[in-house]
Amino acid sequence: MWLIMNPGLLTESVLPLPEGPTTIGRTEENSLCVLHASLSRRHARVERQGEQVVLFDRTA
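Structure for Pkn9 associate protein 1, putative, as requested:
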């Protein structure tokens, strides 16, 4: 399974999505660090569970 960032744009990135949790945010403590002002330090968590993917909002 893959995580596609910015699909269709010149900045498109395709990253493997491992089994279990992947954290996304602005700080380097995250599995995926994205240095963009629109993201919080601890923005989201993606959990791959077999063929299912669940997205958790960590900003609330």
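Strands lie at 2-5, 13-16, 20-25, 32-33, 44-49, 52-57.
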